[in-house]
Design a protein that fits this description.
Blueprint (H helix, E strand, L loop, with lengths): L1 H25 L4 H7 L6 H11 L10
Helix pairs in contact: 2-3
C-alpha cells in the first residue's frame, strides 16, 4: 500500500513540475504573470490560476 501511494506521489510531483515549467515558458512575457510571481508564496501554477480566473488584472483600478 505504501509503495502505491509513494508511486502516486512521485507521479503527481513530476506532473506538477512539468506544469510549472510549461507555465514559465508560456507566460514569460506576460507582465501580470511576472508581477504575481514576485509575491511571496505565489509560484507559476498559482499565478497561472489567478490569471485564468481573473483574466486581465489591469481591469481592476484598485487592489480592493
Amino acid at each position: 500500500m505504501f509503495r502505491i501511494r509513494l508511486s502516486r506521489y512521485l507521479d503527481l510531483t513530476s506532473q506538477r513540475k512539468h506544469m510549472d515549467e510549461l507555465a514559465q515558458q508560456t507566460l514569460v512575457a506576460n507582465p501580470d504573470f511576472q508581477r504575481l510571481q514576485r509575491l511571496p508564496g505565489i509560484g507559476a501554477i498559482m499565478a497561472l490560476t489567478i490569471l485564468g480566473e481573473a483574466d486581465d488584472l489591469r481591469r481592476f483600478r484598485h487592489h480592493r
